[in-house]
Amino acid sequence: MQIADGLWPSAAFVFAMILSGGAIWLLQPLWRQYALAKPNARSSHETPTPQGGGIAVMLAVLVVAVLSTVPAWPSLYSMLSAALLLAVLGAIDDIRALSAPLRLIVQAVAVILVVATLPSELRVVPIFPWWLERALLVIAFLWFVNLVNFMDGIDWMTVAEVVPVTIALSVFGLTGALPRDATFIAFALCGAMIGFAPFNRPVARLFLGDVGSLPVGLLLGWLLTLLAGNGHFTATLLLPLYYLADATVTLVRRLLNREDVLQAHRSHFYQQAMDGGLNIYGIVGSVFAVNIALSGLAAITVFSPSRSFNTLMLVIGCILVGSLLIKFNRIGRHTSS
Fold it and tell me: Strand pairing partners for 36?
């Protein structure tokens, strides 16, 4: 795909943004009646707030995918079907909490559907046997789907993550680093999230909900897998590095402390910073700035690929993310002491 073809993906972005925002505006009375998120141990809000904005986000992405009429891999249709399955799972869970084993089983079905229909020639880590790579991809997809859900804990946090990542993926797609159908999805997801953003602005009038966070995680995982399969593994690590680091370190730390990892908690670094007194704009602004920087580092590895450049950019990215996590941790410790 060439940059000259960028008009149609740009139209997909605008259409998805308008469709997402318009659907939210129309559906707000329904969410207030049937999908109120009540504060719990994980929450950062104090009053019941409507959730389910992910319905509009996914509707926008699906409509754009159907209308784009671009030649598509079978994996696109499998991915969209799996995303729809996760959206239904999330919608039910938003209204009536489901058991963790049931959620994991349905997620596994969706992820296996996506991984099983990836192009057979697509390789992310070619040194691994094909079967081992596919098994690891299933685990990675499951983790990515859940970490987006875990990190969706304060207003604008998912917007601050998804928008920079999808902008970068859209630009990479225009230069051939992603297939044409995936580029449309990247543009559509970016536009849909921007359409959702005004309603999630602190103090939020609407949350994304599991109906949005689960399929968004799947969409991002699919796009990043295609990017890695096209030879840009370092960029694939850099783009979601903050989410990966915060969620993974938090999980490992809770496991080491023998905590119940299935129980709601407020142990993420950004949550510690909020409990420590850092306001929500300071938190999401810092995350957004780091994600913009990570996108820039990823772009260097895509447009000027070399082993030395890749290593240097990854080291810089780790330093940026590590510094932010340390900052958030210090703010949280300062209050607890």
Answer: 50
Rounded Cα distance, 37 and 22, in Å: 22
Q: What tokens were used for 6? A: 């960028």
Place of tokens 């084993």: 101
Do residues 47 and 204 lie in contact, with contact meaning Cβ atoms separated by under 8 Å? no
For 27-85, what is each residue's pLDDT tens digit? 887 766 666 666 555 555 556 778 889 999 999 999 998 887 555 566 788 999 999 99
Q: Which two tokens mark 256?
A: 């080491």
DSSP for 53-98, please give it: HHHHHHHHHHHHHHHH-----HHHHHHHHHHHHHHHHHHHHHHSPP
Q: Which amino acid is at 265?
A: H
User: 134: burial class by Cβ within 10 Å (0-12, 13-18, 19+)?
Assistant: middle
* Segment 313-332, tens digit of pLDDT: 999 999 999 999 999 999 98
Question: Cα dist. 86→146, 166, 301 in Å?
Answer: 11, 20, 32
Residues 276, 281, 287, 290: what is their CA dihedral angle, to the nearest 10 degrees? -120
Structure token pair of residue 148:
């987006």
Which DSSP letter does residue 51 get?
Answer: B
In sequence order, the 6+-apart residues with CB closer than 8 A to the CB of 127 are none
Instruction: Collect all residues with Cβ–Cβ distance below 8 Å to 278 and sequence separation of at least 6.
Output: 328, 331
HSE-CB for 309 with a 13 A CA cutoff: 14
262 to 123, 169, 238, 259, 317: CA distances (angstroms): 32, 32, 27, 9, 30
- Sequence letter at residue 292: I
Alpha-carbon gap, residue 311 to 325, rounded angstroms: 21
